[in-house]
Amino acid sequence: MSSETFRVAIVGSGPGGLSAAAHAAKLGVSHVLLERADHLSDTIYKYQRGKFVMSTPDILPLRSDVTFGAGKREGILANWDSQIEELKTNVRFNAEVVAIEKSQAIFKLRLADGSVVEAENVVLAIGLQGNLNKLSCPGSDLPIVQYQLDDPEQYEAETIVVIGAGDAGVENAVALAKQNSVIIINRESEFARVKQGNLTLILNAIEKADIQCYYNAEPVRVEAKAIILTTAEGEARVPCDRIIARIGAAAPRKFVESCGIIFPNAERTSLPEVSSTYESNVPGLYIIGALGGYPLIKQAMNQGFEVIEYILGNKLEPADEPLLQKKFAGLGGADVDAIITEVRTAIPVFGNLNPLLLRETLLESDVHVIKKDGVVFKRNDYTSSFFTIMRGRVDIQFNALDPTQVITLPTGSFFGEMGLISGRRRSATALAATDCVLLETPRRTMLKLIKSVDSVRRTLDQTAIMRQVQTHLAPGVSVADLQALVNTAELKRFKPGDVIFNQGDKGEDMHLIRAGSCTVSMRVGGRDIVLSYVPSGNYVGEMALLSDAPRSATVKAAHATETIQIQGDAFRALLNSQPSLKEKVETKFRQRIMQNEQMQRRPEAGGIIQFLIEQGVGEGTDVLLIDESLCVHCDNCEKACAETHEGISRLNREAGPSFARIHVPTSCRHCEHPHCMADCPPNAIHRAPDGEVFIDDSCIGCGNCERNCPYGVIQMASPPDAKFNLFSWLLFGKGPGPGDEMAFDEANYANQPHGEKQKRAVKCDMCKDIAGGAACVRACPTGAAMRVSPEEFMSVALLGQ
Amino acid sequence: MRQSILVHRNHFFLKIALLVSILAIVAYVWHQPFERPNGGTWLGYTLGVAAGGIMIWLSWFGVRKRQYGIGILNLEDWLSGHVYLGLTLAVVATLHAGFQFGTNIHTALYILMMIVIISGLLGLYFYIRFPLLLTENRRGMTTEIMVQQIADLDRELRQLAMNLDDATNAVVLKATQETIVGGSVVQQLRGYDSSCATAMARLFVERSESNGEDARRRQLLTRMVRKEELLKRMRRDVQLRCLLKFWLVFHVPFSIASLVALLVHVVTVFYYW
Q: Cα B201 to chain center, whole Å?
């Protein structure tokens, strides 16, 4: 029995726990660090050997007595081991806590070996990984099943089944596939949950048959040397030598609840709530790290440091306090807590965020103090951030033709949310109606919030639907009149090529396209003829509703598309109550019938639309096309590109398909939702205010964007050597001409510095830094090269010419 | 779709060219010098300065074309202006000369200049006509695809020929190894190859007697005909692309020669004044 009562007992020696223990040791506070395993930080210890550990969020300063930076697993662990020892931290290994009881302000921690540790305070830093989800089917306790992969190189020439389609499963499968035959089991029909980089890896591996994948499959039973699955085709027996199940982790709820801690809801992923000093509903019992909702190493380490200070009764500014202070400097020196409280109360969409998440969101946001009539953003700007109004009011000019028509948004509301959904230009101008204070939150941050906080997503979705209906379908109709329609409306997502509805189908629902675009086609004489291309901001499906007939055409998603599905009845009711709207919709209806007639007589125009959609032009915002009836194949476009961009051309004129005199060269289309941006570790790919997607100097040359681009327009290249100037070449024939690379100079080779030059991703930046526009188009002597936006180019009027 | 350089900017440069030409002609008709019209009158000097200016501006195109990402005008504007002002030059220079020609450096300049203008007209014709011919000839295929298809056909041909008699096999093998597309400038410009190894092989197979190998022979022939069709298209492609560049062989050297002649012309005129 322990005779000593510690001031603080820390359970779990992960990043949070060891940082707490280190700080306690440094301050001389009596403490004990209890670790179930025989080494520190079991979760990271069990990472794949050689795994590179990141230190996000970069903006957050580390506050701990133990150091940490991004690096290899081994280095990080060795560093912690030595520092924990140096600080003379009181660690007890092989000390699994099985119960925590509290009597008269003293906690009794019962260990697995029967001994008891007493402490005034307890810090629970057990994370989630200690409680991995296990297979629930019979035979899951057989020795061929494991839940961890330490070193993938340890296995050779085995048949290994990996269960789980998350990042851990995919990483394991890909690493094992190097010297084993790997089968991955995915419960769903796609890999929806993994990081973009992992997605590319696994899909490539499956395509190359390096890894075999069972989709929509679930394990039923494990045998000594096989696993039985249910698949779409029935049961399948997969013989294997080893099964690695990576099916996530959850809070060890039973244990945590037995300590008296309350969970906010019954969901499996739910986590206990903590105060701003990390104290749970049990006084003296603190929770830090992943169990408290903070899965990142740096966050957990900071919390470990802070929790010790809080236990000692010290007030402590959070680590991000100076950063936030700086951020709020423009607000007249009010204190950070007061401002955070103001944000929480004034802005409903952030109201439900826990204090730490809110701080983090604010840290990544910008505070703008704008005088009356100041412009927040203009129509057609290419920004995608999200604005919330903290103080004052904002006017939205939604009508391009009449700037006097405004909607005034009060304090607490948000705008710019369309930027989160579609990557197109701003559809309205926002002006400060009074002096106001705005928070501008970047798109990435908001998307993360939407994904992780349900209340944010719900609020945004509903408001967004209402606004989009108001903007694109029923301008001038009040919110009250639209409420019934919006309440029954639903968001629908479509993959490229998915049918939204088929010709001849019964159905009256309308679809307002809020992101992406569609094609409308009709079957005439046994052939599908594309009638039109419908970009976001338009609706389809009103014809069946108005004419009381089956669908007259097929509508397909041209690429990833989101629509608002509006119930036919609700829309009909709205039309009946709004005569002017009815008039407008019917005019459009007549125009569509006429247009469809015209297009049926000119199938070649439909053919062009179809061709361009197949080339993925529909998801671009600015596409380079070449009119083959004018192109003299001089390649001056390529030379211009190379000469204005460090000698490397970002376009390949001849490559790429052609149809009916239109040639789509291999060149960036500046997609609405750029695939390249999806997984850029240094976040080096941006969208400029005019829509150019470009890569900045922080590129580390990892090649993710090159792999992610479906159009092959990104290349990895190192800048070539400098060349002689134009006149030396023109008059004296020195060096290579425009667009050509400097030849290898053997005589001079010995004098040059050796070693491989750093390769970087290069792509078209639409000549954003060059006055006058795209060099390729300006250098085309015959005017064959053109840059177009797909909505414009695929409009029927233009194709008619 | 886009418009050609001739109609570019609603014939802006055509209008300028016409204006300059008409002004020059009207002035020439109106002007009655003591002697017959020549480059030495005040109008002659004016036209001469204009013609010289235009020549230098036209030559600058060679530099401007290689300067990228600068200037207010696009290269298309420059080319449109280059074409129309080049034609104006013929008018202005002829009037400057007052239709007097002889065996001297001045007429030499005139002839050099006219060679440049005529070769330019030829180039213009190519630029207007060939893009469509190229597109139609390619039928949506790139060079790479055509080469790939020919390589595939060659592989099949070799396989089929392996089971035939030695003579046929040798001819087919030769066809897969020695068929040439392009080559010297003359070969490129000709657009066909009278000694094409594939055509020879086809003729050989057609004429040789069948020894009960009809099916295989037919397969061989269909593939060879397909390959010949592809070769024809590729050779036509090479020919057109070669022509698109070939006229410059006259246009550029003669324009440099005329610049030199212009310098000599100006110096001698002032020297003998």
A: 33
How confident is the model over A359-416, as pLDDT tens digits? 888 888 999 999 999 999 988 887 778 999 999 999 988 777 888 888 889 999 899 8
pLDDT band at A2 (very low <50, low <70, confident <90, very high): very low
**Higher pLDDT residue, A123 or A133?**
A123
Write down the mean pLDDT value for chain A: 85
Average pLDDT over residues A784-799: 76
Tell me how long chain A is: 801
CB-nearest to A782 from B62, B70, B76 is: B76
Phi-psi category of residue A712: left, alpha or beta, with phi > 0 → left and psi -120 to 50 → alpha: left
Given an 8 Å threshold on Cβ–Cβ distance, is B131 in contact with A632?
yes
pLDDT bin (cut points 50, 70, 90) of residue A639 is very high
Which one of B2, B62, B244 has the shortest CB-CB distance to A632?
B244
Q: How far is A734 from chain B (nearest CA, A)?
A: 15
> Do A517 and A536 touch, CB atoms closer than 8 A?
yes
Q: Which residues of A touch B (CB under 8 A)?
A: 627-634, 636, 639-640, 643-644, 654-655, 657-659, 661, 726-727, 730, 737-738, 767, 770, 772, 775, 777-784, 786, 801
Contacts of B143 in chain A (CB under 8 A): 654
Q: How far is the C-alpha of A146 from the C-alpha of A254, rounded, in Å?
A: 23
Query: Given this model, what pLDDT does residue A720 score?
Result: 72
pLDDT digits (tens, 9 = 90+) for A416-429: 887 777 666 788 89
Beta pairing, strands A429-432 & A375-377: antiparallel
Cβ neighbours of A767 in B, within 8 Å: 69
Pairing of the two strands A211-214 and A181-185: parallel
* Angle at the Cα of A96 from the Cα atoms of A93 and A99, rounded to 5 degrees: 145
Rg, C-alpha atoms of chain A = 31
Contact A654 B142 (CB under 8 A): yes
Q: What's the predicted TM-score (pTM) here?
A: 0.68
Q: Which residues pair with A511 in a beta bridge?
A: A540, A565
A111, A96 Cβ separation under 8 angstroms = yes
What DSSP character marks residue A748? Answer: H
Task: Give, to the nearest 10 degrees, the angle between helix B248-271 and helix B105-138.
Answer: 160
Cβ–Cβ below 8 Å for B68 and A640: yes
C-beta of residue A84 within 8 angstroms of C-beta of residue A65 = no
Q: What is the DSSP string of A635-668?
A: -HHHHHHHHHTTT--S-BSSSS-EETTEE--B--
For a pLDDT cut of 90, what percent of chain B falls above it?
66
Which of B64, B75, B242 to mutate to probe the A interface, most A CBs <10 Å?
B75
Predicted confidence (pLDDT) at residue B16 exceeds the cutoff of 70 = yes
Provide φ and ψ at A154, rounded to 5°.
-70, -25
d(CA A718, CA A699): 12
Do the Cβ atoms of A652 and A638 come closer than 8 Å? yes
- Put simply, the answer to whether B131 touches A778 (Cβ < 8 Å) is no
Q: How many CA atoms lie within 13 A of B3 on its CB side?
A: 10
The DSSP-derived string for chain B is ----TTTHHHHHHHHHHHHHHHHHHHHHHH---SSS--TTSHHHHHHHHHHHHHHHHHHHHHHHTT--S-SSS-HHHHHHHHHHHHHHHHHHHHHHHTT---SSHHHHHHHHHHHHHHHHHHHHHHHHHHHHHHHHHHTT--HHHHHHHHHHHHHHHHHHHHTS-HHHHHHHHHHHHH--S--SHHHHHH-S-TT-HHHHHHHHHHHSPPSS-HHHHHHHHHHHHHHHHHHHHHHHHHHHHHHHHHTHHHHHHHHHHHHHHHHHHHHHHHHT-
Are A770 and B69 a contacting pair at CB < 8 A? yes
- Is beta strand A5-11 parallel, antiparallel or unpaired with respect to A116-124? parallel
